[in-house]
Design a protein that fits this description.
CATH class of the largest domain: Alpha Beta
CATH topology of the largest domain: TIM Barrel
Low-confidence stretches: none
Shape: elongated
Structural class: alpha/beta
Distance between the termini: 83 Å
Mean pLDDT: 93
CATH superfamily of the largest domain: Glycosidases
Largest sheet: 8 strands, parallel, barrel
Number of domains: 3
Amino acid sequence: MKIKTGRPYPLGATFDGGGVNFAIFSEHATKVELCLFDSPETTQETQRIQLPEQTDMIWHGYLPGTHARQLYGYRIHGPYRPEEGHRFNSHKIVLDPYAKAIGRMIRWSDEMFGYRLGDAAEDLSFDDRDNAAFAPLAVVIDPAFTWGDDRPPNTPWHETVIYEVHVKGFTKRHPNVEESVRGTYAGLASETSIRHLTELGITAVEIMPVHHHVDDRYLVDKGLSNYWGYNTLAFFAPELRYASVTSGPQCVREFKRMVHRLHSAGIEVILDVVYNHTAEGNHLGPTLSLRGIDNASYYRLSPDDLRLYTDYTGCGNTLNMTHPRVLQLIMDSLRYWVTEMHVDGFRFDLAATLARELHEVDRLGAFFDIIHQDPVLSQVKLVAEPWDLGEGGYQVGNFPVGWTEWNGKYRDTVRKYWKVDTDVLSELATRLCGSSDLYEHNGRRPYASINFVTCHDGFTLHDVVSYNEKHNEENQQENLDGYDENLSWNYGVEGPTDDPEIMDLRERQKRNFLAMLLLSQGVPMITGGDEIGRTQNGNNNAYCQDNEISWYDWNLDEKRTALLEFTCRMIDFRRNHPVLMNRKFFQGRPIRGADIKDIAWFSPAGREMTDEEWSSSEICTLGFQLSGESIDAHEQNEENDTNDTLLVLLNAEAKQVEFRLPEGMDGRWELLMDTNASEQWSVSATFSSGDAVEIAGRALMVLRYEA
């Protein structure tokens, strides 16, 4: 087959109906060979073709007559001098960084390393064994897909409720999902799954990584896997293991059908993406893709020793965002998932790493500037995990306009309050109001704060209220992995129990957390399974557990069913009360001549909190009043003109507390919800201003004012 010159753009393998154009960037390579495979079982390439042209350091060629579904990889020639940052090894097939689909998964063997494992010189040695039988392969796709009337739901940020979910874990054990599609994109898009999501009331799924990733060899050797998927190898290819089909091109179509079905149900799709590092690890890692294509260009190397990598992620390497072609790789990937796969936004793992241009985190780095001006990416939802593991890496509140952030301070403060840590009231008030101290200074709004109590990383909600310490023994790391959450609930027992009093207390605390989350200003994020009491048996780092520890259990008993119903009601309550979804920060001032403030904070005595009370370590009971008048007409939910004034009472103490309702309002207060009541939403009680309300220990109440 005679290869033609082809084009340097677009990068990757592009099928045009008559053939395929191949293009790959490598600044320091001396020769690039395209390797074609007949099938995944083939142990050696059937054709090896040198790319005939190089334009601006992009090697390219066009193969007429080549079809979609063609398997391929590359052999990249160049110097192997790790001490100079170069790790070319043409004995190794490497994966196209622009692969749109995976045609064969990696098969671990010593041949997957560019150096001789066990050699005294370590990675300075050179391995000349061929890895063609084991290397991951890309497959050419035909991108054609009938999207029909697909439209992004475009839910406004202030009305968004996020559900963090794992594609496989969500349906792997669901008895009402067809067995052949459990744990797959098709399973997530099944009628059963969509019914659960819509009845729950969430507006967006934040899907844990679906870019093709690698199970680390050390995990595979232990019988484990990289279940969470934060170990990306291909930034354009959907993970083949989450497909109900067997081929890469079919996997792409299945992913698109999932997005289409979720959109039809009014649910946005946000992808959790990992652009800060790759699966190739540190200097002793395998040669899978970027390392063998152009190590010195793609990775941040240590300026003191180019053999080593700068590691801001704890995963061995960091992508070199200072190189324009690396920046292009990430931007092209993002645009591809929006334009071709129709996703609605991204959550960026360890996003602080992406801002590092020299050493310090620079929030005005090139990455953020480019996204801000990009006509496609500036219009989608952008969520940052605003920290990494490097010096100065904790950047909560420092991302630019247009970005939202996982608010780790919200999680920490809310947890401290319910476990009765002292000196937390003042910060709690700030967090419940959207964290103006973090986001208002640069023009952002309350919805810049993605509020959460739990996420995939750490205890589930059930385990938060059930365990004082992590129990990660199943990870085979002597329970040293994961972080200490220091909960110390002091309930007298840890883990499973038949004690009805402790069981009831735990259920109430779950309701407290969920209610507080959904009563806070900002964007609530619920961890998938928390609404049904999912447990990981105390494992707070289940990244390697692709089994029933991580998979959602859908066999719901009475308590778990009740928790689900409570969560549905709470989300519905939020949706129907615009005062809970303000697009502007509260000011704590009287409203347009009215007698009440937009927000006011009260002590149990029914008086507004004093400075001394805010700083008291003895007060654990607090009330806050949200005035419906604070919602301007143009900010009303278009489908609901509810303008209620709400009063929320919080009591983290173990004992019952008498709370006197604020005076000065002539109407009545109706008790709508009490997390301590056996039927939380069937409460029937009304009170007048100045009346005393008994709030149980470790409970939360919501009252509505009726003039």
